[in-house]
Give the backbone structure.
Amino acid sequence: MFERIEVLGVPIDRVNMEQSIDWVDQTITGDKPEVIYSLNSEIVVMAQNNPLFLNLLRDGGLLIPDGIGVIVAAKWLGLGLLEQVPGCELMPAICESAARKGYSIFLFGAAPDVNVKAQEVLRERFPGICIAGARDGYVKDEEMPQLINEINSSGAQVLFVALGCPRQELWVEKYLPLLNVKVCQVVGGTFDVIAGTVKRAPLIFRKMNLEWFYRLASQPKRIFRQTALIKFVSQVARKRLGLF
């Protein structure tokens, strides 16, 4: 449906927010489950270093350009323009559509209090939304069959998984074939953002494409994750110069 390009060998769909919502609405009526993965510079580097991770991304139904890094890289590498589709904005947009069109959702992941608060906020923001079920992310391996049954018994059509990367992607790869949901989106820390336990960057930072800087400044422990960003920028520069 969408053009799928590759940035440094990692696939990304040329899709915008409206098209992403339309894709969800169409997939809801399909006959097999599909997954939405979010692509940013850290994910690209991770996929380059892990063939298994790269292959599961290739199998994704929708690969949204989440991070500004991949958008800038695509432009620099002559791949044309990509429109940013932040996963933390796509999830509420899907919930808004679900409330209007009557399909149900299931929230899996995050800490217990965060999961509960996220449910409360979603019900307040989107009156009429059907949250068919929810479970925090503290589920042991031996409890997975029970969780799968719980998700399937709920009748939910959309599943949001918030376990952090790469755990959430690996979980979906393993368990999606056992699920009756139609759409699954991995959402990282989005439950925390919705619940208000983690603040998004102010709008001015987002407009200046500096949300990553705000997150680093407000969460200094993220500095250890910036090595991936440095590697990504280096590879983009080398590719631009024909050295990669």
